[in-house]
Amino acid sequence: MSSNDRQMNGQPRPNCFLDHLELPPARKDKQRLARLRAAWKASWEEGGFLYQRWEELYQARHASWHELAAWIKTAALFGGLSLIVMMVDTAGDIASAALKGLNDVPATSAGDGSGLWGTVDHPVRAFLADQAAHLAVAPAALYAFWQLTGLLGLVGGFFGNAGARIAWLLFGIGSLAMIWTAAPIGGRAAATGLAALMWALASIFALRGLTLRPIVHNHPPQYQFNPALHLHATLPAPAPAGDDLGPDNVHPLQR
């Protein structure tokens, strides 16, 4: 056994120092980072994964829905559904808070019914208070909801919303019915007529631009009809050249 294989301090000397050498952690991290950087650059080169995705996203501006890439459609649908769910959840919370607030509105006095507005407003308050006695809701909440419906119908109808205009029409019809029912018998017709005039004046703004005349669209026809008469005549075939001299049985006279 050579001197290189002898024991030193009771421990055998390794045959090769490089066999037991380990790279430090810093060098491993650098190698891993270098591989990641090389993969990132390769993905952005022409034909790479990220390069193709970016081209599909760039071309999506001028493409129709059927021409979009599948991953863009999936992302758009997922984002749209998530937005709808969030909006519905938020709208539910808002509606719940609004209804709870209307239910907690303190009762207000019905007023004495004096003045033009009191002539219209007092029967509505009296009707809602009488109906609320049979319902699990406060009269003030019904009155606040009635006011909110009229306000939304007026504002939404001014901006041309069809649903708001339908709500405005139902609001007016319901208000006239409540006034006719709860107004004093002697002034019932006057109170209802006054309310109808007020509602008609407010409808100038709520039903702005609405017309009952039919809309006629004059568009040129997309096709043109040209009648034509086609005659098909069959011409006889031309006769042979020998037939011009007559039949063959005619011979010249001979002496």
Automatic annotation (TrEMBL):
The keyword Transmembrane applies. It comes from the Bacteria. Keywords: Membrane, Transmembrane, Transmembrane helix. The chain crosses the membrane at residues 68-88, 140-159, 166-183, 189-207. This is Uncharacterized protein.
